[in-house]
Structure formats: structure tokens, C-alpha cells
């Protein structure tokens, strides 16, 4: 017997990430080849955006996806998030050349207050929420704080693109296949201060750190490359990453819903106070997922270099958080 459909809301559905994301959700790549989905697509009420969304929906129809059990267009979060099971909050302004993601805070913060309130009012109580719109960690914090009747653990931010970027750089450096590398994680904020950490990483049981054996490469090449990859893409494309961002969103939700079989992935989740990160700060951590829940990987040793990096990314997040307190 086929499963009952689940409701998936995507905001910013007519944007560039939306265009790379919706077809993959409807084809089953996010929630599995046996899981029908109903897409509730949110855009700004503006006529041009709604018209563009209508065009994307025509294309979705034209794919005749067997798993697409229904779809609707929305200009109001209160209808878009009604009874939703999975919410992907993508809609927000992207940065341009020369900007940092935190420069978007004032433009985007209000969006996440309104959407958090709408989720609080009308979403399924088990809704799994992923914030992609930048600055993703602080926007997720705003949405979580605006939804006091939903469990805080339902709100996450996307660190998976950084995680995947780190995996690819490590694969290139070691000459190993991406899929063979395990136990990489990215700590902190989705920003250049993020700390991509391969101290625990292994390939076929062998330590990646021992294979690389070059602290200068870590500090001077690996961390800046991963940390500034978003800016490098904006510089090259004139637009921010879209297909790789959509891919990371699919990976994040897929793993959260269907599990990681013990493998580590990185998610921005509300801290429970572990590793000295203040409670409820949305911070990138190593997690495993099983049974529809994520579990923090606990008790990892933190050396002096790592502590310094974690402190730096935390300080930036605390500053962003302080800047939005007036909205909460
Ligand atoms: P885009 O400009 O192409 O699309 C954004 C869409 O969101 C637009 O169609 C816009 O009309 C819509 N939108 C704006 N406000 C909205 C609202 N209140 N409700 C619903 N829709 C709204 O941008 P994009 O390239 O798709 O990027 C979207 C966001 O994702 C940006 O903030 C970008 O910086 C961020 N991003 C995050 C990551 C990450 O790893 N976390 C990666 C890439 C991009
Ligand atoms: C990315 O990392 O590619 C996105 O966050 C877009 C950006 O502004 O860098």
C-alpha cells in the first residue's frame, strides 16, 4: 500500500534555489521513492513573482511526477504553512559581490519573524524546518523564537553545503572518493568563520589527518577555501550558489527524515549547552540521524586550535543574535 502524502512548503519557490529544488523533491529524491508529496509553494504576493511561480508549477505538471500528489501557490505564510510536515525556508534576499551574509540580516530578519509566527499558528506540530535563506543560523533562531509553541528542536539551519564543500576538498587532497570519507563536521555559523573539522575523519579506517599531515594546509588553504566558497561562486557566476545549495537542502532533509546509518553529517541545530555553546544558539554540530530525529555527536575532544575557531564563530553568532533581539 502506498504511503499517505506529506505536505512540503518551500518559500522563495520561484527563485533560483527553488528552481533547482522543487523538481528533486517532487521526484522523490528528498523523502524517498515511496513517499508522495503535496507542495505548498510560497512567494511574495507581488504579481510578477506569482506569475513566475505559476510558470514553475506548469513545468512541475509537465514532469508528470508520480509522487506529486498535489500543489498550490501561496502569497501568505498562514496558508502556505497550513498542516505542513516539512518546511524549507529559502525565500530571502541573496547577497551580491562584496557583501557578507550578515549584511542581509536587516533585509531578511522580518521574513523569518513572520514565517516563524505562521508556522507556530498553523504547521503540523512535528514540522521539520530547514532555514536556507541567509544569514541562515540567525534566521533559524528568529523563526524558532517566533514559534514558542513548537519544539525548538524542529528548527535547523543549513550547514550541509559547507559540509559537502569540505568533503570535496578533502577528497581532492587525499585522492580518495568523496563517498569513502567519514566523520567530517562543520561547527558554527554558515559564514567564513565556520570551522570545517577533519580531525576525526577517516577513509577506510585510516585517519585523514594523518594522510594529509599538514597543519599549514588546513589553516591556510582548506579552511579559507571552504569558508569563502560562497563568495568565490558569487564572484564567478555573478549569482550565489543555487544547484549546490538545493542539493545540500535535499541532503539535509533526506538524512533528517530517513536517517544516516550512523554516518556523521553537519546540521545547524539549537544547542543544548554541549561544547560550551549557549543553549538555543543555532550552531553547526556533527550529528547522526535515526528514526526522524537528529542526535548530537557528544564528547569529542576539542584541542586549542579548534577551541579558538569555535570561539570565533560563536562570537559572530552572538553578535548577530544581539542585533535581532528587538525583533523577538
Ligand atoms: P533568489 O533571489 O533567486 O530567490 C529568492 C526568492 O525568494 C525570490 O523569488 C523572492 O521573490 C522570494 N522571497 C523573498 N522574500 C520572500 C518572502 N517573504 N516569502 C516568500 N518568498 C520570498 O535567491 P536564491 O539564490 O534562491 O537564494 C535564496 C536565499 O538562500 C538567499 O538568502 C541566499 O543567500 C540563501 N542561500 C543560502 C545557502 C546556505 O548554504 N545556507 C546557500 C545558497 C543560498
Ligand atoms: C553559499 O554559501 O554559497 C551561500 O550562502 C550564498 C552566499 O551568499 O555565499
UniProtKB/TrEMBL annotation:
Protein name: Malate dehydrogenase
Positions of NAD(+) binding: 12-18, 108, 115, 132-134
Biological process per Gene Ontology, one example term: malate metabolic process
UniProt similarity note: Belongs to the LDH/MDH superfamily. MDH type 2 family.
Annotated substrate binding sites: 95, 101, 134, 165
Swiss-Prot/TrEMBL keywords: NAD, Oxidoreductase, Tricarboxylic acid cycle
Reaction catalyzed: (S)-malate + NAD(+) = oxaloacetate + NADH + H(+)
Species: Thiomonas arsenitoxydans (strain DSM 22701 / CIP 110005 / 3As)
Residues of the Lactate/malate dehydrogenase C-terminal domain: 160-324
E.C. designation(s): 1.1.1.37
Residue numbers annotated as active site: 190 (proton acceptor)
Short name of one Pfam family: Ldh_1_C
Amino acid at each position: 500500500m502506498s504511503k499517505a502524502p506529506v505536505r512540503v512548503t518551500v518559500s522563495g519557490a520561484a527563485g533560483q534555489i527553488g528552481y533547482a529544488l522543487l523538481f528533486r523533491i517532487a521526484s522523490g529524491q528528498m523523502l524517498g521513492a515511496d513517499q508522495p508529496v503535496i507542495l505548498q509553494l510560497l512567494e511574495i504576493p507581488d504579481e510578477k513573482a506569482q506569475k513566475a511561480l505559476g510558470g514553475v508549477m506548469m513545468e512541475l505538471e509537465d514532469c508528470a511526477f508520480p509522487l506529486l500528489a498535489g500543489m498550490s501557490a501561496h502569497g501568505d505564510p498562514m496558508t502556505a504553512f497550513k498542516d505542513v510536515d516539512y518546511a524549507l525556508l529559502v525565500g530571502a534576499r541573496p547577497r551580491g559581490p562584496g557583501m557578507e551574509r550578515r549584511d542581509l540580516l536587516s533585509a531578511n530578519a522580518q521574513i523569518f519573524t513572520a514565517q516563524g509566527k505562521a508556522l507556530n499558528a498553523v504547521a503540523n506540530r512535528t514540522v521539520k524546518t530547514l532555514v536556507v535563506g541567509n544569514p541562515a543560523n540567525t534566521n533559524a533562531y528568529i523563526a524558532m523564537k517566533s514559534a514558542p509553541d513548537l519544539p525548538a528542536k524542529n528548527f535547523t539551519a543549513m550547514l550541509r553545503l559547507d559540509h559537502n564543500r569540505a568533503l570535496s576538498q578533502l577528497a581532492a587532497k587525499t585522492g580518495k572518493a568523496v563517498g569513502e570519507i567519514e566523520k567530517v563536521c562543520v561547527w558554527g555559523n554558515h559564514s567564513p568563520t565556520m570551522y570545517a573539522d577533519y580531525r576525526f575523519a577517516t577513509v577506510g579506517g585510516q585517519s585523514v589527518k594523518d594522510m594529509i599531515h599538514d597543519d599549514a594546509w588546513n589553516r591556510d588553504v582548506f579552511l579559507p577555501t571552504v569558508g569563502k566558497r560562497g563568495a568565490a561562486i558569487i564572484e564567478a557566476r555573478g549569482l550565489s550558489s543555487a544547484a549546490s545549495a538545493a542539493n545540500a537542502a535535499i541532503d539535509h532533509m533526506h538524512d533528517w527524515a530517513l536517517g544516516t546509518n550512523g554516518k556523521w553529517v553537519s546540521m545547524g541545530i539549537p544547542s543544548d549547552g554541549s561544547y560550551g555553546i549557549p543553549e538555543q544558539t543555532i550552531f553547526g554540530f556533527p550529528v547522526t540521524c535515526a528514526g526522524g530525529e537528529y542526535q548530537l555527536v557528544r564528547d569529542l575532544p576539542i584541542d586549542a586550535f579548534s577551541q579558538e575557531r569555535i570561539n570565533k564563530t560563536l562570537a559572530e553568532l552572538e553578535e548577530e543574535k544581539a542585533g535581532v533581539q528587538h525583533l523577538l
